[in-house]
Design brief:
Chain A contains nine helices and eight strands. Chain A has helices at residues 21-24, 44-47, 79-86, 99-107, 117-127, 155-163, 167-172, 175-188, 195-200; strands at 6-9, 11-13, 64-66, 91-94, 111-114, 132-135, 140-142, 148-150. In chain B, strand 4, helix 3 and strand 5 form a beta-alpha-beta unit. Classes of the chains: A alpha/beta, B alpha/beta.
Chain lengths: 203, 478
């Protein structure tokens, strides 16, 4: 995982509620076997609407997106996170996120920052003309004005992001614990293991 | 001292914690991992680059479903027909190569057991009560219908499970959805779950695992339970489950991957111990009277946008929340609907009966019962029935259901996800409506510009016959 600490720059004031992952990246883009190049399809249906915020020149290459409640609901497709990264987005601010999306965002080093609706509303206003800064270390979102909005973050995720840790690498270090669990499980619930054998060699 | 009463979710969770970190994050063991072609190629590629192997190929099962065309797969000489779309063909070929390369059991595109991963898992007895089940697909929640803790994961998590057979997770909150009473005639599990999502909202279950409780679920078939749990994610919950009981055991007994003999007896004994204890508490409770549930359809572009079939398209101003008003205005504009229009006046040009929500034998029977002796209306341009698996298809054909569908003017297809997400060639054209038994009515879900109305298989059949959204009860018993 790439290291993340502070993200600063323009923020696209989308504001919409319930932005689902089909909207972030429609299914016809999912035929790829790569993580790259999905930015072209990101927010396709919104970008086809005249006057959408993605078209505003000032927001080209903006690292932050501001959205409404329940961002990233629906499909588990991690392509949504890859598409956002590919278009240059490395953080989303919203009042709430779907559970699966916030996990996918974290695994790709995208900050999913939850703030109350009033603070999101304020940031939507500021973002029209000014940059925003997200400081992960101090867990605070700031603007060029007096705004200082503190946010919560899972301590383990914060630790991984600040240090650029590889989660799979960390878990593989727990191999002995996993093996021990498997041993106990094989003793108490042996029928859970190797179900295929029963398929191939019916009793 | 007696131990604290626990919920079904807590019992399954506790049985799978390998390690608990000081910060509350847990390393959780995964019993069953289902893999399909769309969300796995990047995970296998990453394993290859890092020189990692699959820890437990024996607990992993791969089957293609999302991207596969539902047109015939074999030529008359028995050879495999090529897939026209090159990208789709390459993605399917990747799974076909990755599964054996990593030692994973693979059900290929022309095997009789092939089907939608969430139909195949329970049908093969690969999905079992009390287990943790994951898949790179949010509708994995379906397997909760047999009493498993099952949830969708992203591709990085697919890779994590392949490499370690575990996931790093924090415990979810618990939510009880209790339904008392009895569902009326013509009211199905699909109507019930649409109604529930309408009550709790699409984010109502976020951060929670739902347990569906009450007599309605106890009396429900396994197929119906899978339908209900499947759409938990549409209510924001990553997983939903129902306590495993004799109905589930009866369904699973003798399935290819299910335990047998003495192991079966031991398994059932353990499964019986999993039901939520008397006195266990939930973080959130929702109570629903089954008598309030009518045949239900969606009118907007979020699964919470539902109304009883006898109702009308709501006015955006009828919502208290200003952001919901704005969302409703956008939805109605996209859907081409005016507030106040009775749902039964809405004409549909397309009918889709299928998806991991409603493609099991009971669903096809319910639709066929309405279609028998009838034909699709003249304005219905395209109607397809897509069985959830090859075995469902075969069973339906043995019962003569395929003839009922084709006589009514439906196309009878090969199994797959099809027009639910329109990744393969099965798409609804821009601006056209589809009465669909699938699970999502999102903007563009069934193809760019498509307009989806979610409903039950019986209601989809009724819409096919009349050419508009219709209360199926009017066609019953005629």
């Amino acid at each position: 995982m790439k290291q993340v600490s502070t993200i600063s720059g323009r923020a696209i004031p989308l504001g919409l509620k319930n932005v689902d992952t089909d909207v972030i990246i429609p299914a016809h883009w999912l035929k790829t076997v790569s993580r790259e190049g999905l930015g072209k399809g990101a927010f396709e249906s919104i970008r086809q609407t005249p006057g959408n915020p993605f078209d505003v020149e000032d927001f080209a290459g903006a690292p932050i997106l501001i959205a409404g409640d329940n961002f990233g609901c629906g499909s588990s497709r991690e392509h949504a996170a890859w598409a956002m990264l590919d278009m240059g987005l490395t953080a989303v601010i919203a009042p709430s996120f779907s559970d699966i999306f916030s996990g996918n965002a974290f695994k790709n080093g995208i900050l999913a920052v939850e703030l109350p609706q009033e603070q999101v509303d304020r940031l939507l206003e500021v973002a029209k003309d000014h940059p925003i800064t997200i400081d992960l270390e101090n867990q605070v979102v700031t603007t060029p004005f007096q705004d200082r909005f503190a946010f919560e973050v899972d301590p383990f995720r914060k630790h991984c992001l600040l240090n650029g840790l590889d989660e799979i690498g960390l878990t593989l270090e727990r191999d002995a614990s996993i093996a021990k669990y498997e041993e106990t499980r094989a003793a108490s619930l042996p029928w859970l293991d190797a179900p295929h054998k029963k398929r191939r060699e019916p009793a | 001292m007696a131990s604290k009463p626990r919920t079904l979710y807590e019992k399954i969770w506790d049985a799978h914690v390998v390690e608990r970190q000081d910060d509350g994050t847990c390393l959780v063991y995964i019993d069953r991992h289902l893999v399909h072609e769309v969300t796995s190629p990047q995970a296998f590629e990453a394993l290859r680059i890092a020189g990692r192997t699959v820890r437990r190929p024996d607990l992993t099962l791969a089957v293609p479903d999302h991207n596969l065309p539902t047109t015939p797969r074999l030529a008359s000489d028995g050879s495999r027909l090529p897939i026209a779309d090159k990208q789709s063909a390459a993605q399917l070929a990747a799974l076909e190569a990755n599964a054996p390369a990593f030692g994973i059991d693979y059900i290929d595109a022309v095997a009789p057991e092939q089907g939608i991963v969430h139909v195949v898992g329970p049908e093969q007895g690969f999905s079992l009560p009390g287990t943790t089940i994951v898949c790179g697909d949010s509708h994995t929640a379906a397997h909760g219908g047999i009493g498993a803790l099952a949830f969708g994961i992203g591709t990085s998590e697919v890779e994590h499970v392949l490499a370690t057979q575990t996931l790093l997770l924090r415990p979810s909150k618990t939510m009880e959805v209790r339904v008392e009473g009895e569902l009326g005639p013509g009211v199905t599990p699909k109507d019930l779950i649409l109604h529930i999502i309408g009550v709790i909202g699409t984010a109502g279950g976020t951060g929670h695992v739902i347990e569906y409780r009450g007599p309605v679920f106890e009396q429900m078939s396994v197929e119906g339970r899978l339908t209900v749990c499947n759409m938990s994610i549409e209510g924001g919950a990553r997983a939903g489950l129902i306590a495993p009981d004799e109905t589930v055991f009866e369904y699973l007994k003798g399935r290819p991957y299910a335990p047998s003999g003495e192991a079966w007896t031991d398994a059932v004994e353990w499964w019986r111990s999993l039901a939520t204890d008397e006195g266990a508490s939930f973080d959130k409770s929702v109570f629903i009277d089954a008598a309030d549930v009518e045949p239900t359809v969606s009118w907007g572009t979020s699964p919470e946008d539902v109304v009883a079939i006898g109702g009308a398209v709501p006015s955006p101003d009828s919502f208290a929340d200003p952001s919901k008003q704005e969302a409703a205005r956008k939805s109605l504009d996209y859907m081409g609907l005016a507030p106040g229009t009775p749902l039964e006046e809405v004409e549909v040009e397309n009918i889709f009966i299928g998806s991991c929500t409603n493609s099991r034998i009971e669903d096809l029977r319910a639709a066929a019962a309405v279609l028998e002796g009838r034909k699709k209306a003249a304005n219905v341009r395209w109607a397809i029935a897509v069985p959830g698996s090859g075995l469902v298809k075969r069973q339906a054909e043995e019962e003569g259901l395929d003839r009922i569908f084709t006589d009514a003017g439906f196309e009878w297809r090969e199994p797959g996800c099809s027009a639910c997400l329109a990744m393969n060639p099965d798409k609804v054209p821009p601006g056209e409506r589809c009465a669909s038994t699938s699970n999502r009515n999102f903007v563009g879900r069934q193809g760019p510009g498509s307009r989806t109305h979610l409903l039950s298989p019986a209601m989809a059949a009724a819409a096919a016959v009349t050419g508009r959204l219709t209360d199926v009860r009017k066609l019953m018993g005629e």
